[in-house]
Amino acid sequence: MSKPRINMYSGIHKALRHFMSDTESRLSRTDAADNEDLQGSLAQVRELLAMMRKHLQHERDFVHPAMNARRPGSAQLAEGDHDHHDWAIDKLLALCDHCATAVGGARFQHLEHLHLQLSVFIGENLVHMNLEETEHNAVLWACYSDEELHQIHERIIAAITPEEMQATMRWMIPAVSPAERAGMLLGMRAGMPPPLFEGILALTRSLVSARDMQKLEAVLAAPQPIAA
Fold first, then answer.
1. What pLDDT, in 10s, does the model give residues 69-100?
2. b/e per residue, 54-80, with b = 16+ CB within 10 A?
């Protein structure tokens, strides 16, 4: 069996799917009459939309130029989707504001409208992510070596602020498979100071099951092959 190619979309898309699903579920059960519950749900919607917008920008800045450089026009459809998603994010943020300030029966109506529109946004993004993970990866794999794809991915990581990275890890760590999680944590351990890695490990313990944590700790404790 051939070695799997580098998939720059996999981890972040799993994180976003997890975040979108959790947010939609939380919003669907929010009590519009409970201001604390409502404001907490609206805060999570805003956090999701901020992460989605950052993700769009990273793809615009790094992935689409790479695709178009070696296969001109290959990112055109996705670029149009991104413009629509930017518009939808603005619309959803405005709906959050309307819902936050509405009173009485209007608050229930605004909350229901926001929930429906967020569901549409999530559905569109799920379809868009499938396009990227199939058609975009086909272009990237045909036009770039794994070493070149790794370099592109490293440039994306370098552009992410510590605050953005922490927010992303909150949703990515529990969303990936045990093998993916172990690979991610091994890479982090090799590339960051021990105190920072211990913080990531503590976050991981708070997010995954005891069984999954045992699997991860077994990998972290095992001798690692020395790079040639």
1. 999 999 999 999 999 999 999 999 999 999 99
2. bbbebbbebbbebbeeeeeebbeebee
Higher-confidence position of 36 and 4: 36
Whole-prediction pTM value? Answer: 0.93
> How many Å apart are CA 90 and CA 47, to the nearest integer?
13
Domain ranges of the chain: 10-160, 177-223
Protein fold of 10-160: Four Helix Bundle (Hemerythrin (Met), subunit A) (1.20.120)
Long-range contacts of 42-51 (CB under 8 A, 24+ apart): 42/96, 42/99, 42/100, 45/92, 45/96, 45/114, 45/118, 46/93, 46/96, 47/167, 48/19, 48/20, 48/23, 49/89, 49/92, 49/93, 51/16, 51/19, 51/164, 51/167, 51/168, 51/171
Burial of 98 from C-beta contacts in 10 A (0-12 / 13-18 / 19+): middle
Cα dist from 76 to 8, 12, 63, 90, 131, whole Å: 19, 21, 12, 22, 12
